[in-house]
């Protein structure tokens, strides 16, 4: 069984890897899958063809390209049963017709195909039709049989035919058109002719290396720099905070040693006075308790403040990062810094720093005490301490790099797990569970291998430090027993031996903790890497802030707009110039991947234009702060965005509107009944990405969101692609009424959606090929006229 979901699931990898999906390469079948899914021309326009790397979740592809790649993946598997869930909603009329003819009725003609669709054009060719209502099959049969029975199916067809009346009445008659007016999907590409796959000419390694979108994660090498230590130690309270911690730690060690000295002094003399002893000892103990309490609070406060500063820095940097950063950075890398690295900064580093400082001060105290009682032992103690430091240096050079490798190898595990969870239905349908299990196991092993070796290195160091500590204790005790009393102070021998016994563990912990500090400082190093990534433009610029009612007209002037996603990629928009008057309704059509959605991204400055200007109501949008710009627009995106929460929190995220206003918006966008049916009403649950609501309902909820906002300029990117014709007609009527005075730019594959627009913009290969009223474009040979003609006749031609 092969399954193509409504929301495309694409893996991070090359196009070839996504289509093969773990199967071996069969060149003829592979080329056929690409052809029948109309991917050949898309690959021609890509610099590296099928070796082009796809970003996480297909972030660098259009919706139609993602849909066709996963369809090609299903075709290549050569299954017996195909489940196709609304695969035509993201493609234009030409491409949809080609796919239905070449793929569904061609390559899959001998297969069982279950097609879920709102587009009734294709149903005449179905052997059986099942009409669903409220989760049950309401009708079943052939097309004409269902029409005769009336009810649900007849109502759907009537709504579809009603929407087609305007198209059919406007459609031009068949006439030969010049080469320049060929349909978009058949227009000769300006890209080079079909490339041979890199593997066919032996250049696959070179092609893959050149087409890498996501680079290997960078890591530092060698010692953690002093700058990293300084940033951590002084980020919150500056150098004064560090000096204060050191002073309090020294005071605590001094108070501890004072108590021990007092005990040794009083018990060694003949004139022991219990009352004085207890009073002084209690005072010293109380001072020690106060000091250690102050030290603990001080370390916890400074550590918490530092962790908060680092987290805010990373969060701010990521929120301000340009889209190119997310194109080339897997989410796993971001999550490891926000989880394991931040945990080290939050919990472990403050504790390790505090304990390490305490241990080293204690070591100094032990050495002072030992040398004071039996000074000849310094001859042995100092070399052994130097040996300890040598072992530390030898160990840390390995452990530090293992820690860096461990941090880097966690990201692929998180990324693969997240990707697997999102595509679990596809994986199960294709019976690829074992492949993903072994891949996950391989990535886990790669990460745990570093952790295992790091622990082994810890044990190696611990054994040697314990041996050295035992040797120091043995030699010190021997000297105290054998040396004459004029060299050894007998009254302090017990105290010295007590300190010597603790030297073993204290020295071990001092060295071990200092090594762990360096290892955990790798987390600070990695977090600081993310605070240095490039940033978007300023969110707010006071000097150029627009007036509160901007844009008040909605005029848009685009002048020679050129746009690329990253500096090393080809132009996607190649010099578009046009003017849109305030209140105009503009339809945007074109082949999938032609640059329609990119135009909206340019208007929102998701990526800054490479050249040209966009002027809205007399203001160059590149001079505005991003919040001032984006907050003035409304948008219904191609892939609806919902966040985990409730209906209320998604439709009114800033809590600006009353419940009555929210219910009115839900009623106008045809969602009131669906929400009312939920026991929680407006507090009905929305899971992550809105997975517990259909794609159509998610799009309608996004529509309700912009209805509440009342923006002067509205962008609609396939806003009704996943709803039926009847709902589409109702929504279009509502939009015309609600946004009658607004400027609307609507990207659509459904031709009826753009037929009542004031003007239609036809984009092909990044160029504005046509821009006129639908009537004028249809009257003359045009790309739009050909598109309308095919849309009107495809039901009978397929």
UniProtKB/TrEMBL annotation:
<dbReference type="GO" id="GO:0005524">
    <property type="term" value="F:ATP binding"/>
</dbReference>
<dbReference type="GO" id="GO:0140359">
    <property type="term" value="F:ABC-type transporter activity"/>
</dbReference>
<keyword id="KW-0472">Membrane</keyword>
<dbReference type="InterPro" id="IPR003439">
    <property type="entry name" value="ABC_transporter-like_ATP-bd"/>
</dbReference>
<feature type="domain" description="ABC transporter">
    <location>
        <begin position="2"/>
        <end position="159"/>
    </location>
</feature>
<dbReference type="InterPro" id="IPR050173">
    <property type="entry name" value="ABC_transporter_C-like"/>
</dbReference>
<keyword id="KW-1133">Transmembrane helix</keyword>
<keyword id="KW-0677">Repeat</keyword>
<feature type="transmembrane region" description="Helical">
    <location>
        <begin position="493"/>
        <end position="513"/>
    </location>
</feature>
<feature type="transmembrane region" description="Helical">
    <location>
        <begin position="237"/>
        <end position="264"/>
    </location>
</feature>
<feature type="transmembrane region" description="Helical">
    <location>
        <begin position="276"/>
        <end position="303"/>
    </location>
</feature>
<feature type="transmembrane region" description="Helical">
    <location>
        <begin position="374"/>
        <end position="391"/>
    </location>
</feature>
<keyword id="KW-1278">Translocase</keyword>
<feature type="transmembrane region" description="Helical">
    <location>
        <begin position="467"/>
        <end position="487"/>
    </location>
</feature>
<keyword id="KW-0547">Nucleotide-binding</keyword>
<keyword id="KW-0813">Transport</keyword>
<feature type="domain" description="ABC transmembrane type-1">
    <location>
        <begin position="244"/>
        <end position="519"/>
    </location>
</feature>
<dbReference type="InterPro" id="IPR027417">
    <property type="entry name" value="P-loop_NTPase"/>
</dbReference>
<keyword id="KW-0812">Transmembrane</keyword>
<dbReference type="InterPro" id="IPR036640">
    <property type="entry name" value="ABC1_TM_sf"/>
</dbReference>
<dbReference type="Pfam" id="PF00005">
    <property type="entry name" value="ABC_tran"/>
</dbReference>
<keyword id="KW-0067">ATP-binding</keyword>
<dbReference type="GO" id="GO:0016887">
    <property type="term" value="F:ATP hydrolysis activity"/>
</dbReference>
<comment type="similarity">
    <text>Belongs to the ABC transporter superfamily. ABCC family. Conjugate transporter (TC 3.A.1.208) subfamily.</text>
</comment>
<dbReference type="Pfam" id="PF00664">
    <property type="entry name" value="ABC_membrane"/>
</dbReference>
<protein>
    <recommendedName>
        <fullName>MRP-like ABC transporter</fullName>
    </recommendedName>
</protein>
<dbReference type="InterPro" id="IPR044726">
    <property type="entry name" value="ABCC_6TM_D2"/>
</dbReference>
<feature type="domain" description="ABC transporter">
    <location>
        <begin position="556"/>
        <end position="790"/>
    </location>
</feature>
<dbReference type="InterPro" id="IPR017871">
    <property type="entry name" value="ABC_transporter-like_CS"/>
</dbReference>
<dbReference type="GO" id="GO:0016020">
    <property type="term" value="C:membrane"/>
</dbReference>
<feature type="transmembrane region" description="Helical">
    <location>
        <begin position="347"/>
        <end position="368"/>
    </location>
</feature>
<dbReference type="InterPro" id="IPR003593">
    <property type="entry name" value="AAA+_ATPase"/>
</dbReference>
<feature type="region of interest" description="Disordered">
    <location>
        <begin position="167"/>
        <end position="210"/>
    </location>
</feature>
<dbReference type="InterPro" id="IPR011527">
    <property type="entry name" value="ABC1_TM_dom"/>
</dbReference>
